[in-house]
């Protein structure tokens, strides 16, 4: 019988997700900073400070504000001369991946469908409200980008889709079929109420709409610098500790592969690479990013990025450790 060599890779939480999936936490009285709500009356913008903080891949830096077109309360206001409000559409064209067609959806109903598709309704109301602001901001930025440069290549007929490529969206009919009529009476009403409570609210950085209002389910304890994930650096997306995820679903997971299977997956994914003989002693992490993700990994005589390894093995994260011995890795 052929001896089985196992490759065991331990994931330390989801890294930087596919677009639209970076950590989003709402903290009460957080020491990291203060978020602001800006409302727009008929003549000029005003800002109302509140004791709440959004954590979006990073501790929110000074200058990030939560802005709205609603009426402002009468206290603690100041003018923002640099504010450039984004116009929200009444409807959004949405590419439905399974049906392979474009559907026009009321914009705020779309936000409700995204919150329902991305997070459980059991979440605290404030968390649902935070998710709504993130989803609305992300959508608005993608729509504006599409107007200026065209729709994404993945779905050229619409600026947004209903999958994790953008944000997961579920219609009320789909949710009722998926979760049941009882959920619609409670879960849908709870999410709808949270979305309606934040209607029109968007995230801005130094007066401009946040381009990357991303979120994910787990960071593995530390978020990532945007420049280590994307081609561009965003000053509000920097690496910070995220100690609030000790019970996160994906914090500690393991994947095992036989040596033959591991080698085959890697070599098939990157046939242009010369790996030579792949043995346990030739499989190790060479470097990591500031956020802890694998930057470079040695496999045989070749070097791959953490993202390449992740994609080749079908892992949801590049934040993993590799333990090698004579028979297992």
From TrEMBL:
Domain Sporulation stage II protein D amidase enhancer LytB N-terminal residues, every copy: 96-205
Membrane keyword on record: yes
Source organism: Candidatus Allocopromorpha excrementigallinarum
Superkingdom: Bacteria
Membrane-spanning parts: 21-40, 46-67
GO cellular component: a single term: outer membrane-bounded periplasmic space
Record's keyword terms, sorted: Membrane, Transmembrane, Transmembrane helix
UniProt name for this protein: Stage II sporulation protein D
Pfam families membership: SpoIID (PF08486)
InterPro entries xref list: Bact_Sporulation_Assoc, SpoIID/LytB, SpoIID/LytB_N, Spore_II_D_firmicutes
Keyword Transmembrane listed: yes
GO terms, biological process: sporulation resulting in formation of a cellular spore
Signal peptide (UniProt feature, chain positions): none
């Amino acid at each position: 019988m052929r001896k089985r060599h196992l490759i065991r890779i331990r994931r330390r939480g989801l890294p930087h997700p596919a677009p639209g999936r970076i950590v989003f936490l709402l903290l009460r009285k957080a020491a990291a900073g203060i978020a602001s709500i800006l409302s727009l009356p008929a003549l000029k913008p005003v800002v109302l400070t509140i004791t709440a903080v959004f954590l979006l891949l990073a501790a929110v830096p000074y200058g990030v504000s939560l802005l709205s077109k609603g009426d402002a309360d009468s206290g603690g206001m100041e003018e923002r001369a640099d504010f450039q409000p984004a116009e929200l559409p009444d409807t959004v064209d949405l590419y439905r991946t399974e049906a392979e067609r474009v559907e026009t959806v009321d914009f705020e109903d779309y936000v409700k469908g995204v919150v329902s598709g991305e997070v459980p309704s059991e979440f605290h109301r404030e968390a649902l409200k935070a998710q709504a602001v993130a989803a609305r901001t992300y959508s608005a930025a993608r729509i504006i980008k599409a107007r200026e440069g065209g729709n994404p290549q993945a779905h050229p007929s619409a600026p947004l889709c209903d999958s994790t490529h953008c944000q997961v969206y579920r219609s009320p009919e789909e949710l009722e079929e998926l979760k049941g009529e009882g959920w619609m009476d409670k879960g849908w009403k709870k999410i709808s109420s949270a979305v309606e409570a934040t209607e029109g609210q968007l995230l801005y950085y130094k007066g401009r709409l946040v381009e990357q209002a991303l979120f994910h389910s787990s960071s593995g304890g530390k978020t990532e610098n945007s420049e280590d994930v994307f081609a561009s650096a965003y000053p509000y997306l920097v690496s910070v500790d995220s100690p609030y995820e000790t019970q996160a679903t994906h914090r500690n997971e393991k994947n095992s592969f036989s040596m033959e299977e591991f080698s085959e997956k890697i070599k098939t994914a990157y046939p242009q690479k010369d790996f030579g003989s792949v043995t346990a002693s030739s499989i190790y992490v060479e470097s990591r990013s500031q956020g802890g993700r694998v930057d470079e990994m040695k496999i045989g005589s070749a070097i791959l990025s953490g993202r390449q390894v992740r994609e080749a093995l079908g892992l949801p994260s590049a934040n993993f450790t590799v333990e090698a011995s004579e028979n297992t890795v």
